[in-house]
Amino acid sequence: MKKTEIEEINRNIYNIKNKDEYDYKIKKGLTPEIIEEISNQKHDPKWMREFRKKALQVYNKLELPKWGPDLSELDMNEIATYVRPKSKLNNSWEDVPEDIKNTFDKLGIPEAEKTSLSGVGAQYDSEVVYHSMREELIKQGVIYTDMETAIKEYEDIVKKHFMKCVPVNDHKFVALHGAVWSGGSFVYVPKGVKVDIPLQSYFRLNSPESGQFEHTLIIVEEGASLHFIEGCSAPKYNKINLHAGCVELYVKDNAYLRYSTIENWSKNMLNLNTKKAIVGKNAQVDWISGSFGSKISMLYPMSILNGEGAKTEFTGISFAGKGQNLDNGFKVVHNAPNTSSVVNAKSISKNGGICTYRSSVKINENAENSKSSVSCESLMLDNISKSDTIPVNEIKTDKVEFSHEAKIGKISDKTIFYLMSRGISEEDAKAMIVRGFAYPISKELPVEYAVEMNNLINLELEGAIG
Amino acid sequence: MKELTLNETPVRTAKNYNINDIKIKEIKIPEKIEKFKNVIIKKETDKDTINENSSKLKLSYGIGKELIEQINKNSNNNEKITINSKTNKKIIIQYKLNKENINLIENIEIIAKENTKSNIIIKYESEEDLKYYHNGAIRIKSEENSEVNVTLINYLNKNTYNFLSIENEIENNSKINYNIIDFGGKSSITNFYTNIKGNNAQNNINTIYIGNENQLIDLNYIVELRGEKAKTNIEVQGALKDNAVKHFKGTIDFKKGSKKSKGNENEFCMLLSEKAKLIALPMLLCSEEDVEGNHSSSSRKSRCKPDFLYNE
């Protein structure tokens, strides 16, 4: 069968490019004056001003990582770290400026809010332009708002938790985030409250040569539960954009949090995001992750199982196409007895894309009777792509059950032959196998998002196989 | 006294995992080296030849620059073995470190000629409980249609620094099989590299280790597959007791052109003490579509009483 060659996939809705209009755009670069100006623009309290300054000092001291993808093309002197859109925060879509609203309409956010979400936050460039939550959750004491409002209205809670889970000296891009962060979501679920319908925050970066540095802080109190969905996208520009967000999750004793992400940044984006969860006694955090976009991605969500009996599961897929280098994975620290972790990671490489699964499982001395099971599978769709698996497993106690397995290979010729013998074309057979490969991830998502993920897979597969 | 940085991995990861390399602190590298005299060599056939003309090392990886330089400048035992026999005859090299031979720096080069078959046993032992130093290199080239079976036995005492660099080059339709018994050394650091350059070529490695007391075992195995229909199978199993620490870095690298190749890597560690620690980094690197690569790594406590498994 003749192979169809398509140089650039039509990313349709994700590639909507609005005019670069803004209320305020800070000059490019990263200096103490620029950090001071961000604080001025955001009316930061004194402690946050000091925090940003210290974070910049840490950023200047830390080196770029000497491992992973080459980040040398990132020049912070060419990145504007704060872009305020021409919109204030609204709680009605009608009040959001038309071009911005149209973008979110096309991304399906307002529709999803009506049908399958109990709350939505929408960020455009550096600020949240829309936030809303169902009345019954407000009555139950659930807080879901933008971080700027949270700092003003819930300052004590924010101050107690902000960048304590992800300390500012974790790595260079966490320090950068600490210095220039803007936007993001704050969620507080009170003790015992079960949020049955998911909340979603969507992050859209429209402005070229800029960065998005949203901060997500979620606290799920004892016995409470939440499903939080994060989506992100951007139109493609010729120059580099940067995403260095930070997600901090506090899952208290007996609580449950599911954190789902469909990441579809444009292919000029460097996605250097950091996500971490601290998990209490008999609590559980599950990560569902679909990574499709970005030029370079370095993303390794982390669970720290601090409470006895704490659990975590990671289910993720990365799909790297032409020009993409996706270096993703998962980290877990077992820090208490009877903890458990299950990892199921998959990756697909095609058209010269590079997928790396990089992980760490650490089982400390005090994590007696803990269990960890890691499985990763990589699928190569051609011989110009690359797929690597780089897992580190550190075990410090004998009372443990640990296993790790990884597989790498191509689509089985026998399976294609079987499907073709049933009248399915070769192209459709391969697409069907790839969707089946991704099924363990898509089945964990709400149906609308599973459909979105399958559409993304179809988009990525277009022209790649056949 | 020096600090040595050894056994760097072919691909780096975050430095806080402490696995990219191993640092040996406060080590005294012997400078005045006398000829090593306590070596016993036996061979079953005169067709195979052994002389002292092993060539200088030019390793693709190697354990570390400083130790490789030491072998090139100061080796006190050189063995060049040429295999001509086709009937799997044995060659045994036995090094016994003792008070007259406290440093062993050997350079072993083995060339298996086309269509040959051989069985080579290299054994390292220490006679008294002294502090010894061993830094060796073993290179094997297996020419077309040859088979080399190698058994390496490390029975050095727990006061000895044990450093070993192994490098193999495997041509069409040939294979090198290793059985490695790694029981000795205060620090036992092994760098193992194979270039499977030929088609239908194979490299199989079976390693067993036991670590106890304050032993540090650092194994860095790298197998690169370049030829078509090449195969590698790496099995590493062992147990750790007391305060022993083991690092296993295993890399199977499918290079472009290694179509229809297969690589399997399996690492299992049994922990027999609460204080024993292990770090494993089993890597699969792949630049070729039509290959099959698998790795697994596991560890758990013993389900038997330690004395049953580990008789001191």
Quick structural gist:
Chain A is an alpha/beta fold and 466 residues long. Chain A contains eleven helices and 25 strands.
Q: Would you mind describing this structure in some detail?
A:
The complex is a heterodimer of chains A (466) and B (312). Chain A has two domains: 12-299, no CATH class; 413-466, no CATH class. Chain A is 24% helix and 35% strand. Chain A contains eleven helices and 25 strands. In chain A, the strands form three sheets. In chain A, strands 5, 6, 8, 9, 11, 12, 14, 15, 17, 18, 20, 22 and 24 form a 13-stranded mixed sheet that branches. In chain A, strands 4-3-7-10-13-16-19-21-23-25 form a ten-stranded mixed sheet. In chain A, strands 1-2 form a two-stranded antiparallel ribbon. In chain A, a hairpin with a 2-residue loop joins strand 3 and strand 4. In chain A, 56% of the residues are buried. The model of chain A is unreliable at 1-10 (pLDDT under 50). Chain B is mainly beta and 312 residues long. In chain B, the strands form three sheets. In chain B, strands 4, 5, 7, 8, 10, 12, 14, 16, 18 and 20 form a ten-stranded mixed sheet that branches. The longest helix of chain B is centred in the N-terminal third of the chain and has 10 residues, at 65-74. At the A-B interface, strand 24 and strand 25 of A face strand 20 and strand 21 of B.
